[in-house]
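Thread: quick sanity check before group meeting

JM: Hey all, I'm pulling together slides for Thursday and realized we never actually wrote out the predicted structure for the chain we discussed last week. Dropping the sequence here so it's in one place. If anyone has concerns about the input, flag it before I start.
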Amino acid sequence: MAEHSLSRAELLRIFPLLSRIGDARLTEQIIAVWQDAFADCLWPRLEDACFNPEAHPFRLVDHINAATQGALAVAQAMEEYQGIALDHDRIIALGYLHDVSKILEFEPGPDGTPRKSEIGRLIQHGAMGAFYARKHGMALEYIHLILTHTPQSKMAPVYKEAWLFSHIDLADAQIVDSFHEA
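JM (edit): ok, ran it. Output follows.
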């Protein structure tokens, strides 16, 4: 794997909602997860990482930001109209961790076109993100959130924020996959 780095400042620029997390330790853990995973990936810049090779040229960072911002907007509407309190830190953390594994699941091919990597072929989506989260001491709830955000998981999320996020994430993914112009 290529050894390169991603600074804290770059991550805060790329993922602006990180600054809204109230728990500074959680923010630093998310940053450490991204820095560690990025050091192991083949993308020259995080902004180059694809969301899905079939939906190229859509970028992973745009999907992550859209799903996170969308989930927060729906959470605010649910709080206002349904009276259901949701943990915004949990939503933002899940938003910024749910697809960290994609920088390893996909890689640039010899001609620069994105393709599925060996990790992507052999390991279920989300598992590498959970591995890095555990490595950086994240609470079990966040490992669960990462693993259960995807329909590929055989486990269902136990947190209401995860249910909300998984639907927003899937909506963004389906719209990008189905309605982009080739």
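AS: nice. The chain has a mean pLDDT of 93. The beta strands are 106-108, 114-116.
JM: adding both to the slides.
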